[in-house]
Amino acid sequence: GWAGEGQGSGGKSRHVCHAAARLEMGSLWEEFNRLGTEMIVTKAGRRMFPTFQVKLSGLDPLADYVLLMDFIPLDDKRYRYAFHSSSWLAAGRADPAAPGRVHFHPDSPAKGAQWMRQIVSFDKLKLTNNLLDDNGHV
């Protein structure tokens, strides 16, 4: 599965230099990737499926951590799904990148021990393509 891991000190705080994240439900994410998409957005609630869940390790159990999620564009293209070929096709240039919005995990801040005790789920995250959204959607 996917893992993000801090290697050595390299200027990183001792509280994060050994932090690692292991993606839960990795096989489902791989299946989505094999089919040509990373996720779907459910119509009801604008929630992402599969839900982004990770198991964290290597945190300082007594330190406070804030977890957040951010999305950044992979490229400058707009895509549409072609049902006849079951694939995504580039459909021109995307809108200029908007200022990033981040989603803070609702349990933030919390001690490292709490984050490592259970799977961390971003199931409350809601997505939008509305640049003027003021409902806290990412």
Automatic annotation (TrEMBL):
Intracellular or extracellular location(s): Nucleus
UniProt xrefs under InterPro entries: p53-like_TF_DNA-bd_sf (IPR008967), T-box_DNA-bd (IPR046360), T-box_sf (IPR036960), TF_T-box (IPR001699), TF_T-box_CS (IPR018186)
A single BP term in Gene Ontology: cell fate specification
Source organism, top-level taxon: Eukaryota
Protein name: TBX10 factor
Annotated GO MF terms: DNA-binding transcription factor activity, RNA polymerase II-specific; RNA polymerase II cis-regulatory region sequence-specific DNA binding
Gene3D superfamilies from the UniProt entry: Transcription factor, T-box
Ranges for domain T-box: 23-138
SMART domains (alphabetical): TBOX
Presence of keyword Transcription regulation: yes
UniProt organism field: Nyctibius grandis
Keywords: DNA-binding, Nucleus, Transcription, Transcription regulation
Keyword Lipid metabolism: no
Cellular component annotations (GO), alphabetically ordered: chromatin; nucleus
